[in-house]
């Protein structure tokens, strides 16, 4: 049976070149990277440090600003928790649209560590209300002077909305707040230059850019690294910040995947925009009054890899039926997909008309490098069959 995978924002297939380099390393390099007394250990240490240099180069960071983690969830947890413990942050400003690895951590910090958390208001289509952000930054800066951390994702994983990064950078500078951004959906998909951007912390995950699962990294601005103490203690790996024998095979896979993605970003973005605009126009033909969620139908204001719309019927078997027809898509809240009753927190937060939530289903289509126009045609045919059977 023909199968089409259009859930690339949840995870991507691993590139063959990545599998090849990982297998080679698995076969030939087993030494413990901390056992630098002998050549076995030095060989794997060198693989890790070369990978770190390559990764840093791709995003124009310094190698010692890259700390490997088990992925985006750990990286986001680490940044938020250590900003409280090491940087003495007492006030976190975030949004209701963040990934659960940020939201659940922030809830925990507020409940168990008395950290004040404030949610920035949303404007139309889920854009962050920057006037509100400035208002709360200003109020705290002049009145209570608590140390602040702004945590806002650079691009949303469900609706694709881009954050207006330049404006957030200047607000954080103006009011002396640290800035953390969950960059999991943009690293490997959009060009990033850490020297030109003013992130204090950013996070990445290899399985979002055709690398392996279980490996990612956090970017920590050089001037802050010395202030960060470990949350996982032990053998002092990763500059003493994150102990544990390194995932050498994951690290080399991440490095290869990021390199392959970054050396072809212009063509990649062009192709993703083409697939997205084709999909938008084909969807409009079969659902003339289709409602797109967030800014996802904008080619400039949202990730070209993500399109989110309301399927005009409440049909809990939608994804199951599409899967039987060979189409893999989801509603985008993969962490909650075991519990159908839990509608995406992102869609709930941005949908003013609650009737839509009761009568329609959010659908996320996410494109990747292995997709072609014919995959969109296949998806549209499957939707046509579903709609015809309504
Ligand atoms: N942040 C965003 C925006 C994501 O899309 C994801 C993955 O779904 C994560 C964080 C978590 O990354 P990981 O799967 O590597 O833990």
Can you offer a commentary on this structure?
The protein is an alpha/beta fold and 390 residues long. It has two domains: 4-12 and 265-389, Alpha-Beta Complex (Aspartate Aminotransferase, domain 1), CATH 3.90.1150.10; 16-263, 3-Layer(aba) Sandwich (Aspartate Aminotransferase, domain 2). Helix content is 41%, strand content 12%. It contains 13 helices and eleven strands. The chain has helices at residues 16-28, 39-58, 72-85, 100-112, 130-143, 165-174, 222-225, 248-262, 265-286, 318-324, 345-350, 354-359, 373-388, and strands at residues 4-5, 66-69, 91-94, 116-119, 148-151, 178-182, 201-205, 216-220, 306-311, 327-328, 361-366. The chain has a seven-stranded mixed sheet, with helices on both faces. It has a two-stranded parallel ribbon with strand order 1-10. The chain has a two-stranded antiparallel ribbon with strand order 9-11. Strand 5 (148-151), helix 6 and strand 6 form a beta-alpha-beta unit. Helix 2 packs parallel to helix 8 (248-262), helix 5 packs parallel to helix 6 (165-174) and helix 9 runs parallel beside helix 13 (373-388). The protein starts with a strand and ends with a helix.
